[in-house]
Recover the amino acids of this structure.
């Protein structure tokens, strides 16, 4: 299997040079037919359109063919993180404060590994959440194995406003 951290170090600067932010790099699927999934976003809309995906895909295909960091064959998939996006970077937890998220941890925290609630922010490597039952909890960022935003009306409204704002600037 490919070294994801190494792929991120290779892909991240190139995505940035193209004017996008890298959200996540992940290998999905089995060893016989894996897919390298690259999620990126435009800084202004936090999404990608088909043209953006094509630009990134073409450049990464050329770069990956030259560097050959993955043994064997694989498919490259470039996509937008979507509205109910994964939370993968410290800045995601700060940016999406006030929105509902789900997360899983590598080890139990206060007797549980799954959390759902409103993000209250991130400080000193610790995510603060207000859980659905009203309790507040701290989750160390290093313990999060996966996290994503929950699709809510507030999130849809913010997405719509961001899209409208981007359209006005183009």
């Amino acid at each position: 299997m490919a070294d994801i951290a190494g792929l991120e170090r290779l892909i991240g600067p190139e995505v940035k040079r193209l004017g996008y932010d890298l959200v996540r790099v992940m290998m999905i699927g089995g060893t016989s037919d894996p897919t390298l999934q690259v999620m990126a976003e435009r800084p202004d809309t936090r999404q990608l359109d088909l043209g953006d995906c094509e630009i990134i895909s073409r450049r990464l295909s050329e770069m990956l063919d030259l560097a050959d960091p993955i043994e064997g064959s694989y498919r490259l998939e470039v996509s937008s993180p979507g509205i109910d996006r994964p939370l993968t970077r410290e800045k995601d937890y700060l940016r999406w404060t006030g929105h509902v998220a789900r997360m899983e941890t590598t080890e139990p925290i206060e007797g549980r590994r799954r959390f759902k609630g409103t993000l209250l922010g991130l400080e000193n490597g610790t995510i603060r959440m207000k859980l659905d039952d009203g309790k507040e909890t701290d989750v160390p960022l290093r313990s999060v194995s996966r996290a994503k935003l929950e699709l809510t009306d507030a999130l849809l409204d913010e997405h719509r406003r961001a899209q409208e704002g981007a359209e006005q600037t183009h």
